[in-house]
C-alpha cells in the first residue's frame, strides 16, 4: 500500500505528492482499520503517495525527496499491534538499521536488483557473527556454473547476464564489467566462460575487458 493517492490531473501535482496533512493521515488510518478488520495480518507500506489517473511524465520524477518515512512511523505508532514493513528508497545498511528501530521490517525492491551486493552488505550488518559474505568474484563463479547448466538446457546467455549488470555498481571497473557482459553475451556461440572474464581487475579502467570470440566467428 501507499500512504495516499494523488490524481496526476491535479495542477499542482508536485506539491500534492509532498504534502501530507491531518486529513491525509485520517484517511490512511481509516484504510488501515478497514484492511485490518478484513483480515490483513501484515502491512507493507511504501512511504510515498501514489499518482493515479495517467502516466508520470519526465517533469514528474519519482525521487526520494517525496518519501515520507515519518508518516509510516506515525502509522506504526497508531497501530502498534499491526506488523508494518516500510518500503521505498532504503538500501544503505545504516538507513535500514534506523528503520528497523521503529518498524517490523524493511522491504527492498529496485535497490536489490540494481545493486544486488547490497544484500550481502545488509547480511553482514544485521548478522556480524554469521561469517564473511561471499565476494563478487565468488558469486560470478557460482553464476558461471548456473549458466553452464542453463545453456545446456537450451537457455540463452544474454537472458542470464542481463540480470547481473548491477553486481559491481559503484565499484571500480563497473563500466568495463557491464560492457563485457552486454557485448560478449551477444556474440554468437558465447558461453559461460564469458562471466569470469568480466571480473574487473584491481584498479580497473586501465584497459578494456574484451569478451571472447566464439570459435569460427
Descriptive notes:
The structure is a single chain. With 217 residues, this protein is mostly helical. The chain contains ten helices and five strands; from the N terminus they run E-H-H-E-E-H-E-H-E-H-H-H-H-H-H. It has helices spanning 13-18, 22-37, 69-78, 93-100, 110-114, 118-126, 136-152, 157-161, 174-184, 194-197; strands at 5-7, 43-46, 50-52, 84-87, 105-107. The strands form two sheets. It has a three-stranded parallel beta sheet with strand order 2-4-5, covered by helices on one side. It has a two-stranded parallel sheet with strand order 1-3. Residues 202-217 have low confidence and may be disordered.
Please report the total strand number as a whole number.
5
**Order of strands side by side in the largest beta sheet?**
2-4-5
Oligomeric nature of the chains: single chain
SSE order in H/E notation? EHHEEHEHEHHHHHH
Any idea what the shape is? elongated
End-to-end separation in angstroms reads: 51 Å
- Extract low-pLDDT stretches: 202-217
* Helicity level: 40-55%
pLDDT averaged residue by residue: 85
Major β-sheet annotation: 3 strands, parallel
Q: What is Rg?
A: 22 Å
Residue fraction in strands: 5-15%
The helix-and-strand class reads mainly alpha
Figure out the total of helices: 10
Amino acid at each position: 500500500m501507499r500512504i495516499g493517492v494523488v490524481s496526476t490531473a491535479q495542477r499542482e501535482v508536485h506539491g500534492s505528492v509532498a504534502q501530507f496533512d491531518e486529513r491525509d493521515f485520517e484517511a490512511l488510518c481509516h484504510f488501515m482499520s478497514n484492511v485490518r478488520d478484513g483480515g490483513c495480518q501484515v502491512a507493507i507500506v511504501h512511504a510515498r503517495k501514489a499518482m493515479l489517473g495517467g502516466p508520470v511524465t519526465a517533469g514528474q520524477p519519482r525521487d526520494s525527496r517525496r518519501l515520507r518515512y515519518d508518516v509510516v512511523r506515525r502509522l506504526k505508532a497508531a497501530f502498534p499491534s499491526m506488523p508494518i514493513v516500510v518500503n521505498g528508497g532504503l538500501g544503505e545498511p545504516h538507513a535500514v538499521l534506523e528503520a528497523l528501530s521503529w518498524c517490523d521490517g524493511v522491504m527492498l525492491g529496485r535497490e536489490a536488483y540494481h545493486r544486488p551486493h547490497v544484500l550481502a552488505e545488509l547480511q553482514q550488518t544485521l548478522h556480524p557473527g554469521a561469517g564473511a559474505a561471499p565476494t563478487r568474484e565468488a558469486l560470478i563463479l557460482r553464476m558461471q556454473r548456473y549458466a553452464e547448466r542453463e545453456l545446456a538446457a537450451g537457455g540463452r546467455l544474454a537472458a542470464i547476464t542481463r540480470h547481473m549488470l548491477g553486481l559491481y555498481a559503484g565499484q571500480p571497473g563497473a563500466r568495463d564489467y557491464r560492457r563485457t557482459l552486454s557485448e560478449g553475451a551477444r556474440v554468437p556461440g558465447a558461453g559461460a566462460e564469458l562471466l569470469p572474464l568480466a571480473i574487473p581487475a584491481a584498479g580497473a579502467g586501465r584497459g578494456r575487458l574484451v569478451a571472447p570470440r566464439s570459435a569460427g566467428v
